[in-house]
Amino acid sequence: MESKLPHVGTSIFSKMTALANQHGALNLSQGFPEFDAPERLKLRLTQHVQAGMNQYAPSPGMPALQQQIALLAERKYGAQVDAAAQVTVTAGATEALFVAIQTLVRPGDEVIVFDPAYDSYAPAIELAGGRSVHIALRSPDYRIDWQQVAAAVTTKTRGIIINTPHNPSAKTLKAADMAALKALVAEHDLYVISDEVYEHITFDAQPHLSALRDPTLAARAMVVASFGKTFHCTGWKLGYCIAPEALTSEFRKIHQYVTFSCFTPAQLALADMLNEEPEHVDALADFYQHKRDLLIEALQSSRFTILPSEGSYFLLLDYSAISSLDDVGFCDYLVEAIGVAAIPLSVFYADGSSDKVIRLCFAKEDNTLLEAAKRLCQL
């Protein structure tokens, strides 16, 4: 049978986690927390299960959770969001991204994607009949050249996918970036898919510049977020999309045939958590900044060049002073010889180019980070 995605194989995340398990390595590759979800959240989940809330939720989401999402957007970004008309709960952010892309992209459309990019974007665009236009961001700054972006816009360009804080570079978009994006959207009548799954994890007192902050930009944007990243429960696979009412209506037409609805008791537990313990969200940046700083300090004596991490729970290391191996080979070597699993950045580029940079995830217990750093400092 002819494949609809002939160039897609097993994801690098699955490969590196399997390799880490095989060699008993410390897994700093796949981006999942090593620690558990908050106790209140688990307690509320159990209570809702025991109370019999175990049947289908409404397809757009449980109203209590939709309302809490709208309130969160207002509290954090000053956004006025109609919970019933604009918020859709999804089976993780990846489903939200997939459905948003299917909603916007028509056969022949082009979508601008910034590499290194999360690996779900391009396949979803291709399945919608569109074409990804890749603009490569380079080490060590990974900054967007907006003149290059403007030059890439054609009559076929439907939209732009942004990701801030950015995975895997750990960079954040700044006010000048959002202004340039807004100008392009207005000039060319474009749409934006804004992947903001690490929205609450920005460092050094820098704010997260959500597309929801600007009403003009928000009117053309589909904003995707993740409860798994925020509440350390990636296995629950719950996220959401906030979009203008007209786009949400089209989004929901597709969502209902992808998952229909999502885990009912978990939705109710998350609504309770957002209402009863808002300080968890507010404390997330400091929580992860401690881990970032701990890992950076522990790597100071290593031969790696440590690149700045402005947000997310990732840290990039340039290993060009250590090895001539390409980044995939170097990551294989790290697992087998050092016992630390990392992710090579070349797999996030459409052209496979390598700047000899690897990604570590620091959503781990402190002792895991210290032991990983100790091993990396042996190189």
TrEMBL record:
What residue ranges are annotated as transmembrane? none
Where is it found, in Gene Ontology cellular component terms?
cytoplasm
Pfam families in UniProt: Aminotran_1_2
Keywords from UniProt, A to Z, are:
Aminotransferase, Pyridoxal phosphate, Transferase
Q: What name does this protein carry?
A: Aminotransferase
| One Gene Ontology MF term | kynurenine-oxoglutarate transaminase activity
Q: What is the lineage of its organism?
A: Bacteria, Pseudomonadati, Pseudomonadota, Gammaproteobacteria, Alteromonadales
Q: Which cofactor does it need?
A: pyridoxal 5'-phosphate
Q: Outline the extent of the Aminotransferase class I/classII large domain.
A: 26-376
Similarity comment: family membership: Belongs to the class-I pyridoxal-phosphate-dependent aminotransferase family.
